[in-house]
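Researcher: We plan to redesign the surface later, but first we want a full-length starting point. Tokens attached.
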């Protein structure tokens, strides 16, 4: 595996994406519309010629597409720091695409020197703009609250600012916080119908009889079955009296313990777990 993948800008590809953006957004992510207020659009355009970090929430895989649209509204181009594994999606085709629209790789959870060096170079260059997702990889699906930020994000901003003022003491580095909120379109019947179909597929896979339960109870039943299966796999004795959060936390920490043991991670101490 190639350890580091640098960014590039393929202008013909970028122009094609600009023109076909509404169609591609719908086809790839079922994204029908991106709403940005008139006031915010005007503000974005004022940032066109400044160095900038665009920091957004990241609950799904759609936010980079939203960031691309924001860059268009601004009249600029963004670079993107993306997890190394993303470059291998689609047998590497996804990697080739995002590399040519300004993305470069980073190994999450490590001191990736090449990624940090590239990020600092981008932000210290005139009008350099970098997209960061402080929450890390999109695994939460949480659209109403922020997950804990990855370590090193704030430090990268300070390092970049130090690089800038060494040669241009009067210049600034702007931080543009963004929060993407998704709204599902459709009638109440359509949305519930899609949820019902999704639940049916999961229930069939898990061998669950939904009986006459409502949607909420069916979701909770699926969650309980998955948790119990995880406890069985990791040889964890269920402690039902301590609640769901505690039991889920135990599974999570057992997974971390197993990984640490498998890879012989030095300095890892599972005795500090609050779930023991």
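Model: Full-length starting sequence:
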């Amino acid at each position: 595996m190639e350890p580091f993948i640098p960014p590039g800008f393929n202008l013909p590809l970028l122009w094609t994406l600009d023109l076909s953006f509404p169609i591609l957004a719908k086809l790839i992510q079922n994204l029908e519309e991106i709403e940005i207020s008139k006031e915010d659009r005007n503000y974005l355009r004022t940032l066109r010629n400044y160095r900038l970090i665009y920091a957004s929430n990241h609950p799904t895989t759609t936010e980079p597409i939203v960031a691309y649209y924001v860059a268009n509204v601004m009249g600029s181009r963004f670079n993107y720091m993306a997890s190394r594994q993303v470059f291998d999606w689609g047998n590497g085709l996804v990697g080739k695409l995002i590399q040519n629209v300004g993305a470069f790789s980073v190994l999450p959870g490590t001191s990736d020197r090449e990624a940090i060096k590239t990020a600092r170079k981008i932000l210290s260059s005139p009008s350099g703009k970098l997209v960061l997702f402080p929450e890390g990889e999109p695994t939460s699906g949480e659209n109403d609250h922020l997950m804990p930020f990855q370590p090193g994000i704030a430090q990268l901003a300070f390092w970049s600012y130090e690089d800038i003022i060494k040669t241009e003491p009067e210049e600034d580095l702007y931080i543009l916080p963004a929060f993407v909120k998704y709204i599902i379109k459709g009638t109440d019947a359509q949305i519930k119908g899609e949820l019902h179909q999704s639940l049916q597929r999961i229930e069939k896979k898990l061998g669950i009889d939904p009986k006459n339960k409502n949607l909420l109870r069916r979701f909770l039943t699926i969650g309980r079955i998955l948790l119990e299966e995880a406890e069985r796999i990791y040889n964890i004795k269920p402690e039902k009296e301590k609640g769901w959060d505690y039991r889920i936390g135990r599974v999570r920490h057992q997974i971390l313990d197993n990984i640490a043991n498998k890879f012989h991670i030095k300095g890892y101490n599972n005795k500090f777990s609050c779930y023991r």
